[in-house]
Write a structure and sequence with these properties.
- The complex is a heterodimer of chains A (about 900) and B (about 425).
- Among the domains of chain A are: about 1-95, Ubiquitin-like (UB roll) (Roll), CATH 3.10.20.740; about 345-535, Dimethylsulfoxide Reductase, domain 2; about 805-900, Barwin-like endoglucanases, CATH 2.40.40.
- Chain A contains 27 helices and 35 strands.
- In chain A, helix 10 runs parallel beside helix 18 (about 505-520) and helix 16 packs across helix 17 (about 475-490).
- Chain B has about 425 residues and is an alpha/beta fold.
- Chain B folds into three domains: about 20-230, NADH-ubiquinone oxidoreductase 51kDa subunit (Rossmann fold), CATH 3.40.50.11540; about 240-320, Roll (Ubiquitin-like (UB roll)), CATH 3.10.20.600; about 325-415, NADH-ubiquinone oxidoreductase 51kDa subunit, iron-sulphur binding domain (de novo design (two linked rop proteins)), CATH 1.20.1440.230.
- Chain B has helices at about 20-25, 30-35, 40-50, 60-65, 90-100, 100-115, 130-145, 175-180, 210-225, 225-230, 260-270, 305-310, 325-340, 345-365, 370-380, 390-405, 410-415; strands spanning about 80-85, 120-125, 160-165, 205-210, 240-245, 250-255, 280-285, 315-320.
- In chain B, the strands form two sheets. In chain B, strands 3-2-1-4 form a four-stranded parallel beta sheet, with helices on both faces.
- In chain B, helix 7 links the parallel strand 2 (about 120-125) and strand 3.
- The radius of gyration of chain B is 22 Å and the shape is globular.
- The chains are: A alpha/beta (about 900), B alpha/beta (about 425).
- The complex binds flavin mononucleotide (FMN), iron/sulfur cluster (3 copies) and FE2/S2 (inorganic) cluster (FES).
- One iron/sulfur cluster binds near residues 151, 156, 157, 202 and 206 of chain A.
Chain lengths: ~900, ~425
């Protein structure tokens, strides 16, 4: 703590802060541009100037940049000082010299930091009459719009993109008052986190191109706290609606999870909600075709099928909420409920859950991953599977080098000084994966191998850490010495971390990762163990229980079931098509609840349109084991309703007694918390619907929401009453509490004078720290303090390439591999085309070249794919793009002949 | 009067080769230094009172003493000769490098030895191709004769020296911009502290020193601090290469005792103004210093005295303004240069200077308004020291702010007459 004086009053402020951070934390309105809490200080814009005085007697003082000056004990500053104030106004005047002043047509308008700072400094009129400099804009791809004339040269974009996110293809060009921020030539931005530019850029240069297609001002959006559904990490988002349709996703700060940043899949995947593939009407099979059926008729039909039917089973979903899964489980009974995970998925997720529950190590939050100081990634391509982890790991490699800059007494927030002192030195990060990953450039060493060999490397590391861990027989010398190098790096770290997951389709890889963590834990180290999860609620679905798909198939096959209710799940992605066909054909009744018309829906007799994430309330459990609540941004139109509501109606139709007492989300949550002890704490994920602040519900729309009275005036001039929300403490209105709702109920960040996302400073208990009131979410899994379990011991044999067969391994793509986001047009545009990848040697052996057609034979089905050459793939392995090519339903690592066509 | 830096200047300006240079006493300072400890060399330089000749006049020995030494010091350490010399009106380093390349190299080896550097760079202005060629040749000779490389002259000391040609920005001469440029990055300046002495090139301890400063080093080691102090007519030791450009009779460079008066330089060495022209003012040390006028002619050219007169000695090479040249036009020309050379990092500079440039152009073209003079004054305050990230902008507004003071009537005539009265 330090005591500082601001305008003659003293305050206690945190140690190791700049004056700017201290002032913002104290609640002062001090303008800034180039500083960003996650990027630190570089002193470029000069907007944050204050007067600093040497001591009490100093009456003249001198201007300093508050972002570059430490808030050291006894510092005396004035924000109000006339020189400082007029200098700050001068900076805006300077920035505005060339600015086009096109707020009315600028997408940033209304949530623009430049607008806010202009008002804050009091600069009003341009005094220059000379021509402005202009630029030519670039097409940066389907995600980001570029309008360079609005640039104020704060350098945030390139600092974020290059220095923070590791991107290479955005840079600052030229100099003086015409620095150009863009690509060396037009083209799609290559970094997977480019979308954050939208929030990083304080002006309208970089804006959301998908929003542009259905543009709405921030003040006109109805918003709700949401959780990303596009991978297992559970980044917090804000979902925003106007006129009944989802308009955009913004990052929603969570100090423990995503912090300030999302990945581009998470930011731009949302358009599937608006897509053509949505089912909006209740559909029933009539004359062999799915045709709209009035909802009431559908309920009647359910009333004919369900009551007294002893042969109903339910297939849940790892992408549906706990509440929806639980409602289905209650409807059909726990023993007739199946988790909806593939056999392999279910097996691997259960294994991971078991490890997380029993120890050896605690699973870290994303913010803890970010400060790990030695990391092993075993069998995962995190950038493409759990993207936000990759961004966190880019920061983790700076941890050890920053211990060196601490010694030079360079404050960590003095960003460029730190970077210049560190240069390219990186802390330990080891990546072992089947093929090259997008994080390899940050890695100390990489290892490419087949899944079994990845596992063997992991086992060898564990053995090097602790001789009690099983050794790996016949390990190649190179792998042995790498294992020793990795073990040494992890051993000497303060906060080592092991990351693994199911992407290599290998239990051995997961067990090997657990062994490494155990080896470290046994030595008393505070090791973290993080697993990626295949879907947004995989861990939640697993905690809920239920058999795997084969068990469900068997139930129908053996005649124990003939009616199948499938919740938000496309079975064709989980099992071989032939098996799914057999299953669905054999079942007498197939009822699907989903928002997309998937191949599974196409096979159903009744399809009930479900609300997508932005149209639903519920709880998801992230790969960290964090239960997080998401809320409806709006009430969906047509027949669409939340899955758990459909299920309550089905329970009623089936005559289930629970249905009597279930009418709201809280009812379902209460029953769920009571029914499943592992999930009991989910009630704490957010306040209940009864919550009120100052007697009011929380407004989903900002004060300035406009046009409500006229939105439906073409239909009826009298304004309808805003719909009630029985399920949450949020109101579908701008009426209600606006200022500081509890973090889990904060629909948007906005503070007087701070219309942009920068208003976040006003919602945190400390800058970059937790939100006031605590970061949202509740952790469900904590291993016992002392982990004295034993090492896994089944070390696989070395991978042996076969003469004429190739091991098919999925290769993941941030754009394309995930089921929902790949329906979003902008994401689809960036998804790879189908391919089958082999290394150059194998290609030569097969006598194929890139682009040639090759045939893969799996489970009796032939797939034709164009060849791609990935020189980094190990010999004997063929990779295919997961999700883009539908081989994954075929299960665990299959071998196939490849034949040239 | 004793010449030091220019004593070996050959008629025609061709440099001595290594043999000739050694015959004239070259590499003696180095031999002597190698017999001393690095600390002793630093002490000698400290005691000599040598101040940097690149413009800021920072005491050289003191700067060196901040470099971490001893067992735990990070390595490699670096020495950079700042040979960028893009300051308008300045061409003294060029003379030294073209005509006495070994002098720079020897000074650098001694300086590098003093701070225990492993690698040295000469960061040379890209357009100085003659200097580049001669330095390259001299470097090769120095390597051949074991003045560079491993185990220099049997001392056990190793040093590599490289010549790097600048891509050509004024900012590359700013010492931290120079480091970024050497690393292949944009020539934006760096945050200070940490100073390059502790975290410089590639994050390692680094000394950046002007060419003229470095050329003095081995002479001081050879002859001692007292000798060096005795060369001067003022508190700052040594000689100084002064220069004059503009419409004087004999523009050029002269090595004179530090503290020679402006009048002596202007009237005796530069021969006074050309026939028919009157003196109006001068920028004493390159374009980024404030104008001095008639009343200042008896000021001694050293760091303190020029400062007292309201300007800076800067590089010591003055630019002279006569009564037939438009001061507004001259300042416009300079601000055009500075606005163009702004690295674009901090707002008062990139925005203020280009605004000033536009207004000055407007005045020249007859579109100026009375209020422009206030706005120009605003830009000068806006870009004052401390308000900007580096010293480029504060330097850039020095000629402007002093022109507004001394030649205000000329500015006003541009507004009143809606044209440049000199055209
Ligand atoms: C914009 C700018 C340009 C500069 N250019 C040069 C230059 O070309 N040569 C030089 O020696 N110093 C230049 N300097 C000064 C250097 O930053 C630095 O002070 C100097 O090289 C230190 O050497 P010295 O102590 O020997 O003078 C420049 C400074 C600024 C702000
Ligand atoms: S594009 Fe945006 S972030 Fe980048 S420098 Fe310009 S205003 Fe700043
Ligand atoms: S990392 Fe995962 S949870 Fe986070 S935004 Fe991306 S897809 Fe969504
Ligand atoms: S004053 Fe600012 S913009 Fe100008 S050169 Fe220095 S850092 Fe760059
Ligand atoms: S915020 Fe301090 S200089 Fe930009």
């Amino acid at each position: 703590m330090a005591k500082i004086w601001v305008d003659d009053k003293w305050y206690e402020v945190g140690a190791d802060q700049s004056l700017l951070e201290a002032c913002l934390e104290l609640g002062f309105d001090l303008p800034y541009f180039c500083w960003h809490p996650a990027l630190g200080s570089v002193g470029a814009c000069r907007q944050c100037a204050v007067k600093q005085y040497r001591d009490e007697k100093d009456t003249r003082g001198r201007l300093v940049m508050s972002c570059m000056t430490p808030a050291s004990e006894g510092a005396r500053i004035s924000i109000k000082d006339a020189d400082a104030a007029s200098f700050r106004a001068g900076v805006v005047e300077g920035l505005m010299q060339n600015h086009p002043h096109d707020c009315p047509v600028c997408d940033e308008g209304g949530e623009c930091h430049l607008q806010d700072m202009t008002v804050m400094t009091g600069h009003n009129y341009r005094q220059t009459t000379y021509p402005k400099r202009t630029f030519r804009n670039q097409n940066l791809g389907p995600l980001i719009n570029h309008e360079m004339n609005r640039c104020i040269q704060c350098y945030r974009c390139v600092r974020y993109y290059r220095e923070y996110a590791g991107g290479r293809d955005l840079d600052a060009f030229a100099s003086r008052n015409q620095v150009f921020f863009g690509r060396h030539q037009e083209g799609t931005l290559q970094n997977e986190f480019a979308g954050n530019l939208v929030e990083i850029c304080p002006t309208g240069v970089f804006t959301d191109k998908t929003l542009k297609k259905h543009y709405t001002r921030k003040w006109d959006l109805q918003m709700a706290p949401s959780v990303c559904v596009h991978c297992g990490l559970g980044c917090n988002t804000t979902a925003a609606e106007r006129y009944g349709s989802l308009r955009r996703i913004l990052n929603r700060y969570n100090g423990h999870v995503n912090g300030y940043f999302l990945c581009d899949r998470g930011r731009f995947g949302y358009e599937f909600v608006r897509g053509e593939q949505r089912i909006k009407q209740t559909l029933a099979r009539q004359d062999g075709k799915l045709k709209p059926l009035p909802k009431a008729k559908a309920i009647e039909q359910l009333g004919r099928v369900l009551p007294g039917n002893q042969k109903v089973i339910g297939i849940g979903s790892p992408r549906a909420s706990l509440e929806a899964n639980f409602a289905l489980r209650t409807l059909v009974g726990p023993e007739r409920f199946f988790s909806g995970m593939s056999d392999q998925g279910s097996h691997l997720v259960s294994l991971m859950e078991e490890i997380l529950r029993q120890g050896p190590a605690r699973t870290p939050s994303l913010s803890e991953i970010e400060i790990s100081d030695a990391v092993l990634v075993l069998g995962e391509d995190v950038t493409n599977v759990a993207p936000r982890i990759a961004l966190a790991l880019r920061q983790s490699v700076r941890q050890q080098p920053m211990e060196f800059t601490d010694k030079l007494k360079i404050p960590r927030w003095l960003d460029h000084a730190v970077r210049e002192a560190i240069q390219d030195v990186k802390g330990p990060l080891f990546i072992a994966a089947p093929s090259a990953t997008r994080l390899d450039d940050a890695a100390t060493a990489t290892y490419r191998a087949a899944p079994d060999d990845l596992a063997r490397l992991g086992f060898a590391i564990a053995h090097a850490l602790d001789p009690q861990a099983p050794d790996v027989p016949d390990l190649a010398a190179g792998a042995r010495s790498l294992a020793e190098q990795i073990a040494a790096a992890l051993k000497s770290a303060k906060r080592p971390l092991v990351i693994s997951g199911p992407s290599s389709s290998s239990a051995a890889v997961i067990e090997a990762a657990a062994n490494v963590a155990r080896g470290l834990a046994k030595a008393g180290q505070a090791v973290g163990l993080a697993f990626t999860m295949p879907e947004a609620n995989s861990l939640g679905a697993n905690l809920m229980g239920g058999g795997d798909l084969s068990a469900a198939f068997k139930a129908v096959e053996e005649g124990r079931a003939d009616t199948v209710i499938i919740l938000e799940n496309d079975l064709y992605l989980k099992a071989p098509a032939a098996a799914v066909d057999r299953f669905l054909d054999a079942a007498r009744h197939v009822i699907a609840i989903d928002y997309l018309s998937t191949p599974t829906v196409a096979k159903s007799e009744l399809a009930l349109p479900a609300g997508a994430f932005a149209e639903s309330d519920g709880t998801l459990v992230s790969s960290e084991g964090r239960a997080q609540r998401f809320f409806q941004a709006y009430i969906p139109k047509d027949d669409i309703q939340q899955s758990w509501r459909w299920l309550i109606e089905m329970m009623r139709a089936a005559g289930r007694s629970e249905a009597e007492s279930w009418s709201t989300l809280d009812d379902v949550i209460a029953a769920l918390a009571q029914g499943i002890s592992a999930l009991a704490k989910i009630t704490e994920a957010a306040p209940s619907a009864k919550f009120r602040k100052l007697g009011e519900k929380i407004a989903r729309a900002p004060n300035r929401y406009s046009g409500r009275t006229s939105m439906l005036a073409n239909i009826n001039v009298s304004e309808p009453k805003p719909p009630d929300d029985p399920d949450s403490a949020l109101a579908f209105s701008m009426e209600g509490y606006q200022e500081h709702p509890p973090p889990s109920l904060t629909p948007f960040f906005w503070a007087p004078g701070w219309n942009s996302i920068q208003s976040l400073n006003k919602f945190q208990s400390e800058i970059k720290g937790p939100l006031r009131g605590g970061d949202p979410g509740v952790r469900l899994i904590e291993p016992p303090e002392t982990a004295n379990g034993s090492f896994f011991s089944s070390v696989p044999k070395p991978f042996a390439a076969r003469p004429e067969e190739w091991l098919l391994v999925p290769l993941y793509h941030i754009f394309g591999s995930e089921e929902l986001s790949r329906q979003a047009p902008a994401v689809a545009e960036l998804a790879p085309k189908p391919y089958l990848a082999v290394n150059s040697e194998d290609a030569a052996h097969l006598q194929v070249q890139a682009g040639d057609q090759i045939e893969v034979n799996l489970a009796g089905t032939a797939h034709r794919l164009p060849v791609a050459i990935h020189p980094d793939l190990p010999k004997g392995i063929a990779g295919f793009p997961a999700g883009v090519v539908s081989l994954e339903g075929t299960g665990l690592l299959a071998w196939s002949k490849l034949s040239r066509l | 009067m004793e010449k030091v830096l220019t004593k070996d200047l050959q008629p025609g300006g061709m440099p001595l080769d290594l043999k000739g240079y050694e015959k004239a006493g070259g590499y003696q300072g180095l031999r002597k230094a190698l017999k001393m400890t690095p600390k002793e060399v630093v002490e000698v330089i400290k005691n000599s009172g040598l101040r940097g000749r690149g413009g800021a006049g920072f005491p050289t020995g003191m700067k060196w003493s901040f470099v971490p030494t001893g067992k735990d010091a990070p390595h490699p350490k670096y020495l950079c000769a700042n040979a960028d010399e893009m300051e308008p009106g300045t061409f003294k380093d060029r003379l030294l490098m073209e005509s006495t390349p070994h002098q720079l190299i020897e000074g650098m080896i001694v300086a590098a030895y003093a701070i225990e550097a492993d690698v040295a760079y000469i960061f040379l202005r890209g357009e100085y191709i003659v200097a580049a060629e001669r330095l390259r040749k001299a470097l090769a000779e120095a390597y051949e004769n074991n003045c560079l490389g491993k185990n220099i002259l049997g001392s056990g000391y190793n040093l590599d020296m490289h010549l790097h040609l600048s891509g050509g920005r004024y900012m590359c001469g700013e010492e931290t911009g120079l480091l970024n440029a050497l690393e292949g990055k944009r020539a934006n300046p760096r945050t200070k502290p940490p100073f390059p002495q502790t975290s410089g090139l590639f994050g390692k301890p680094t000394i950046v020193q002007n060419v003229e400063t470095l050329c003095n080093i081995h002479h001081i080691v050879n002859n001692g601090p007292d000798w060096f102090k005795g060369l001067s007519k003022s508190d700052d030791g040594g000689t100084k290469i002064y220069g004059a450009s503009g419409k004087v009779k004999r523009p050029g460079l002269w090595e004179l005792p530090m503290g020679t008066t402006i009048r002596e330089i202007l009237e005796e060495h530069a021969g006074g103004m050309k026939e028919g022209l009157k003196f109006r003012g001068l920028l004493p040390g390159g374009a980024s210093t404030d104008f001095l006028v008639e009343e200042h002619l008896d000021v001694k050219m050293d760091f303190n005295e020029v400062q007292k007169a309201g300007s800076r000695m800067g590089t010591g090479t003055m630019v002279v303004l006569d009564d037939r040249t438009c001061p507004v036009g001259m300042v416009h020309n300079l601000e055009h240069f500075f606005a163009q050379e702004s690295c674009g990092w901090c707002t008062p500079c990139w925005s203020g200077l280009s605004w000033a440039e536009k207004m000055l152009k407007g005045l020249e073209e007859g579109q100026g308004q009375e209020s422009d003079l206030d706005r120009l004054a605003f830009v000068c305050r806006f870009a004052a020291p401390g308000n900007t990230f580096c010293a480029l902008a504060p330097g850039a507004v020095e000629p402007l702010q002093s022109a507004l003071k001394y030649f205000r009537e000329d500015f006003e005539r541009h507004v009143r007459e809606k044209r440049c009265p000199w055209r």
